[in-house]
Amino acid sequence: MAMPAMQDLPDRFIEIACLCYGDPHFDHRSFHARAHAMLRENPWLAEANIWSASAAGNARAVEALLNGDPELVNHPGPHGWAPLICACYSRVKPAHPAHSTFEVAKLLLERGADANAFTMKGNADERLDQTPRRYTALAGLVGGGSTGFANQPPHPCWRELAEILLDTGRQRRRRKGARPQSERVPGVLAPARIAAGRDRNGRHHADGARAGSGGPARESGGDPFAVGSQCAHR
Q1: Alpha carbon 136 to chain centroid distance?
Q2: How many CB atoms neighbour CB 129 within 10 A?
Q3: Across all residues in the chain, what is the average pLDDT?
Q4: Domain harbouring 90, CATH code
Q5: DSSP of 51-80
Q6: Rounded Cα distance, 31 and 20, in Å
Q7: Nearest CA among 140, 165, 161 for reference residue 228
Q8: Within-domain flag for 107
Q9: What angle do CA 132, 135, 138 make, to 5 degrees?
Q10: Domain assignment of residue 6, yes or no
Q11: 185 in any annotated domain
């Protein structure tokens, strides 16, 4: 396979650093290792643009870019992905100990990122259903999909970030005078709350990750969510 040109390298890095769920390609854990190697060989990728910096976990670069242009916080980048999508879907191991996609996601939300950011995805295999599917930032945190949790693991800080996403969205709706979506449409946020360790009423429960019907813990041999409680390798 031909090497991408230098100007295309940030986009290529983002593609293999983040979960894609079949669009533009199927996910495999080797891609995340390749993204880490790419980052080590090309450290400038961690500050090339806000989307690349978000995927790499470079909060300092993201902050500097937002200071220069606040509108970037929700601006679509490669494949229409907002910076928050890049941070929540990234699975690349940071190349610098100070880098953290957890910290990038928090920063983006503090600076006004849409907590309900989403991307529409098709399917890399033309033989399969091509109906566009909506994937939110929250969906990217939980991981899991057609290639399994070995290739689509949860974000290392999935639980903490899920709490922040849900709370941020709820607070903004209240400031606008709207009732929380979970109150307007009963149960609509239940799967997300269960994934975040809460019951349908928002209360914490001890075994939230295992409570979802058809959930990832049932589909896998172990508990793919265990690392989330430790928030390791952010």
Answers
A1: 8
A2: 9
A3: 79
A4: 1.25.40
A5: HHHHHHT-HHHHHHHHHH-GGGGG---GGG
A6: 11
A7: 161
A8: yes
A9: 170
A10: no
A11: yes
How does DSSP assign 205-225, residue by residue?
-TTHHHHSTT-HHHHSSS-TT
> Tokens representing 228?
């989330």
Q: Which domain holds residue 40?
A: 11-229
pLDDT of residue 216: 36
pLDDT tens-digit readout, 143-165: 988 788 999 999 999 999 999 99
Q: Which residue type sits at 180?
A: P
Q: Are 53 and 98 in contact (CB under 8 A)?
A: no
pLDDT, tens digit, 9 for 90 and up, residues 66-92: 999 999 999 999 999 999 999 999 999
Tokens of 42: 């090309």
State the amino acid at position 29 in one-letter form: R
Measured CA distances, 164 to 21, 36, 107, 159 (Å): 23, 26, 11, 9
Provide the token pair at 8: 């295309």
Q: What are phi and psi of 71, to 5 degrees?
A: -70, -15
- Encode 179-214: b = buried (16+ Cβ within 10 Å), e = exposed: ebebeeeeeebbbbbbbbbbeeeeeeeeebbebbee
pLDDT band of 207, cuts 50, 70, 90: very low
38 within some domain: yes
Question: Alpha carbon of 170 to those of 26, 115, 146: distances in Å?
Answer: 33, 9, 31
Distance CA(194)–CA(10), nearest Å, equals: 35
- Least confident range of 23-32, 33-42, 60-69: 23-32
Give the whole-angstrom CA distance, residue 29 versus residue 19. Answer: 9
Q: Cβ-count burial of 105 within 10 angstroms (0-12 exposed, 13-18 middle, 19+ buried)?
A: buried
Q: Which of 167-176, 206-215, 224-233 has the highest mean pLDDT?
A: 167-176
Q: How many domains does the chain have?
A: 1
Q: What is the pTM of this model?
A: 0.75
